[in-house]
Amino acid sequence: MDMNLSVEDLAFKNEVSSFLDDNLSEYLRTGLLRTPGVFVEPDIGEEWHKILYKKGWITHHWPVEDGGMGWTPMQTYIYEKEVALAQAPKPAPVSLSLIGPVLCKYGSTAQKEKFLPRIRSGEDFWCQGYSEPASGSDLASLSMRAVLEGDKYVLNGSKIWTTHAQHANWIFCLVRTDTSVKKQAGITFLLVPLDQPGIKVAPILSMSGDHEVNQVFFDNAETLLEYRVGDEGQGWEIAKFLLQNERGGSCFAPKTLVHISNLEKYADTYETADGKTMKNDPDFMNRLAKLKLRAHALEFTELRIQADIANGRPAGPQTSLTKLISSNLAQDVQALHNELFAYEGLQLPSERPLYHDDAPEPIGSAAGQTSLAAYLNGRAATIYGGSDEVQKNIIAKQILRL
């Protein structure tokens, strides 16, 4: 694999960097830095969404015929890396990176015409209905039912850990439409409007104090037959395609390297109770260096995957490698971040968001104020999108052929 960028790629890199310098405000950068959760609040995401939409880059990773830019895999990676280095927020990832690509690949012409423009513009905001109270890592065991009655499906059951359902107007759901076949074969993929009788969104506050996730209850809720994606029983196939995008749809290493770079800056300037900085602590700096090496190794793995994609090989199960490595690495970075700020890092304000003018003043630094919340929120990284155990099984079976 040639690690040197071509002349065209270098020009593209400079174009992206200049665009970010000109359009990414300090408010948006600060909003991301002061968000302890995985997803930024909608006001931050929506503002950046509008800027990217105007530029034409909001769905850069989609097929050209559906509104994509036709970038090469390396250009896409360059873009994602520059965005991470600039510390730009990620707008509506469930809409843009999960359901969008699914509709591009599996959606009917009518579904594409209805939904894709509204996703691009930000008019529709989507959430994901996969996990259930008794079906998380074993997603194929889901039990939420959908029964076809004429030209509509009637849904009963619930979905849990539904990120930003409180802000969404649509949810895509995996539902059970057949109980007489193998469990994977009885699952169907439906698009469901949230603003209707029979649907209740109940908030779940995480131990970090964030309201990111919810439980969504369906009591004879309805959706039209025309909002079924694919055929009945094709939901498991579609779900696996979506999960590959979720686990490896963007570059994780550059984001982690930014967090490590911030840690290096804090270690160089933040004074402990004895008036010293952590850069003088050899044990701390040794652990920080090891994290940086792991992040660079992850980046090489991601670049190898991009090279495979450029040569016609789909992302496939190797995305489980990046998901497994990046989740554990992120947790280790968060743990060291929390350790650096010591008692100052034990703040856990309940107010959100922390970048507004009426947010509480930090005790010490702003980075310390969000430290513990980010650490606690990050404990879920090795569960959502498929737990570590699930990723290891996929790697063992589909990559190592064990």
Could you explain the architecture of this structure?
The chain has helices at 7-23, 26-33, 42-55, 73-86, 93-106, 109-121, 235-248, 253-269, 282-310, 319-341, 366-369, 371-377, 388-399, and strands spanning 126-129, 145-149, 152-160, 170-176, 187-193, 199-204, 213-224, 228-229. Helix content is 46%, strand content 13%. The longest helix has 29 residues, at 282-310. It folds into 3 domains: 7-91, no CATH class; 126-233, Butyryl-CoA Dehydrogenase, subunit A, domain 2; 251-399, Butyryl-CoA Dehydrogenase, subunit A, domain 3. It is globular, with a radius of gyration of 22 Å. The protein has 13 helices and 8 strands. The chain has a 4-stranded mixed β-sheet with strand order 1-4-5-8.
Amount of beta strand: 5-15%
The radius of gyration computed from the alpha-carbon positions, rounded to a whole number of angstroms, is: 22 Å
Uncertain spans: none
The structural class is alpha+beta
Number of strands: 8
Distance between the termini: 27 Å
Number of helices: 13
Output the helix-strand order. HHHHHHEEEEEEEEHHHHHHH
What's the structural domain tally?
3
Inertia-based shape: globular
Stated plainly, the CATH topology of the largest domain is called: Butyryl-CoA Dehydrogenase, subunit A, domain 3
Query: What can be said about the biggest beta sheet?
Result: 4 strands, mixed
> Which class of the largest domain in CATH terms?
Mainly Alpha
* Side-by-side strand order of the widest sheet: 1-4-5-8
Helix content: 40-55%
